[in-house]
């Protein structure tokens, strides 16, 4: 084994610690081998940080078992021969007093540690209906069956208990209180008698995920602590109560666990905009409430009654199911990184809502000069070229600032900001709620505004008429685009945009005129154009992005298609397409994902028109016709419902909302009606072609 570890170590030395969160499963093996080798030779187990020790504790003896037995089945590689714990003690906040013992620190596992535990040991290739059985099997092999201490933790109390037995099938533990009573309470007082009554009401059984294993230095309960943590995390962040209703026609880990796990860590590591996170959580809550209503209605329906009340209930159930499928489709868009990038979202608004200041009460116009210092020649040139023409009237005042952000924050309607040459660093987003002009006094490479701290955006504009010119914007550690035009109009000329995530975003009903600019480096699209927007791109260079221009053509009945002018642009060296159009798979599905059109998800060309919404129905095939019913034809829906049987089930066909999306190159996109004018453009060395269409 030592030789294998050395070999693996030499083969994997090029992998740095900064890449650990993106490492693939095949690379995880090498990481474990490296740690084992280091420990066996030098006793050094702390690599990067203490979390790596968690990985060792979970997978320490895997290779020995493979060598000794040649068996690759499940988690029976664990053994109890340990010199001490490799997990850390959970630290309490400074100054906090507690009446209960410390527990293992298991809540800070890395992405790949959870990924590997769920994929290789807990879930494997199980189907949705097999999740509980696979989980029970995993726990039975890893968790100590009895005689260990734990904290029974709820929102109200933490109380010390002893585990007497574990019911793996029901994922519960049989416990008894440790006397004298040791507990921490939050907002209530608990006595020993009250706790005994509470335990007796539940048959002395509590859910395993509510237990936190008490810290023991010997290492005897490391695996138990980790297994309970994986169980708790799974049911708190991965499992959805409607998952087991799905048909067993897909790999649950691939379809659900991996994307949800990635989304959790993307949110944790600030790689998802705050508005998108809030919208996702709201959708998740709405979907949970809808499913509960659906379940209650379904369980209350009589299986052998033809009463009018039951018929009406069935129609209500179909409507609830229709709503549930829409919400689930939206959730899938959020959980899929590709769809999240391509389709985006409509509900995100800036977390710091900046109101328009309007004109000054005095009617005076302001000119704001931004410079840390300047030479006499620069000042003389500024006076003659810009200040004197702008200040020819008496109702103008001049203010001086050291950075662009402070100047913009005091601007009123109609003000002008002149930025002298220099490199200016800002730590917050720049919001432009008023019609102002920001111009660099020099070439773009001489006037640089750089954003370094994390945030949802760099520049956000909601002003009616905003102008930007002769400035270079450099984006670092961003989550959203370098410029987002949410409302109003932005005129941009002779600017350089060095992007980090997406580039310029033109939201619904916003307008952008972008002339003679250079945009590059976007990990998304250089320019994202939403339905209902108006975008004019003339004489720009858009290059070295994931896609050059991404057009979202899925307008609903409240939107119109975007209007785009593209003339004399050079779009080159992009990873994907020069111009890509996003649209629903069928011609009749043109709605925004947030709307009802999501009920008609993507699927194969020969799939049934309502196949994505598995019908809340009886065994009768006539039920599928009921899903097309509308309130104005409720009587016909009721007839259709009553003609079918009464035994409902939440069946689910292979959902087209989770079919793989696809893109393909097209030749006739230039003829699309979204283009007001498209001429003189040059497309060079784009990885997937000049024009393409993404179907979802």
From TrEMBL:
UniProt cross-references to SUPFAM superfamilies, sorted A to Z: Pectin lyase-like
Keyword Repeat included in the entry's annotation: no
Biased composition (Low complexity): 607-626, 634-644
Pfam families the UniProt entry points to: Beta_helix, SHCBP_N
Keywords of this entry: Cytoplasm, Cytoskeleton
Residue ranges constituting the Right handed beta helix domain according to the UniProt record: 462-586
SHC SH2 domain span: 113-340
Location(s) in or outside the cell: Cytoplasm, Cytoskeleton, Spindle
Classification via InterPro entries: Beta_helix, PbH1, Pectin_lyas_fold, Pectin_lyase_fold/virulence, SHCBP-like_N, SHCBP1-like
Gene Ontology CC annotations of this record: spindle
Annotated Basic and acidic residues bias: 74-94
Keyword Cytoplasm: yes
Gene Ontology biological process terms in this record: fibroblast growth factor receptor signaling pathway
Region described as Disordered: spans on this chain: 62-101, 588-659
Compositional bias ranges of the Acidic residues kind: 62-73
Protein name as catalogued: SHC SH2 domain-binding protein 1-like isoform X1
Biological source species: Gymnodraco acuticeps
Gene of this entry: LOC117554643
